[in-house]
Amino acid sequence: MFDYRQLIADLPSLIQGMGTTALVTLASFVVAACLGVLLGGASLSRRRPVALTARTVVQIARATPEMIAVFWAYYCLPILLGANLSGLTCGVLALGLIGGGYMAEIVRGGILAVDKGQWEAAKSLALPRAITWGRIIAPQAVRKMLPAVVNYFTDLLKATTLLAGIGVGEVAYVAYMSGSASFRYLEPLTGVAILFFLLVFPLSLLARHLSAGTRTQR
Predict the structure, then answer these.
(1) Using one digit for the tens of pLDDT, what is the confidence trace for 70-88?
(2) Buried b (16+ CB within 10 A) or exposed e, 21-50
(3) Which member of 48, 127, 133, 164 lies 3.0 to 4.6 Å from 173 by CB, making a disulfide possible if both were Cys?
(4) Which CATH number belongs to the domain containing residue 10 in this structure?
């Protein structure tokens, strides 16, 4: 039977593990966002070799399973670099690099979604390229990207549980260790499910609200 007292006893360690989960999520998101902007912009370049290279990298990233990327980064990357890398570092790099492919598509889609009339108006006014992007295109593209970005952030948050396989002390790993110590997995894993629901559900509502707002502005 389910033991609520065991769940309450596990909560402090689970919440502490959630702190590591949050750190991994934010760090991976920063890496993915930076790569996404670079790859997304490059994929729209008028220089065919640049655009083709960027799109190839994006397709490879999106086609690679996250679990494979995490294990490859943990076991192979230190050998290739000749350096000792922690599981946390390898996990962040793996999720960030894979996420860069998804963010690139979000960025590309957001830019393409800006009405062509905005480009033509800026061109007719002979506005500098920096002003065209900074004052006209980028703000509109970001608004259109926000729902997809929040959805991706939600998926990334859930994907951090894969790092338990390489010993990173995020919440899923903490739950597994707690279960193996007490031989009761029901309570700690249920606690993980509850914590993720409390985080993911509000993000899902936010994404839905942003998506509705975007449709209203059209």
Answers:
(1) 999 999 999 999 999 999 9
(2) beebbebbbebbbebbebbbbbbeeeeeee
(3) 164
(4) 1.10.3720.10
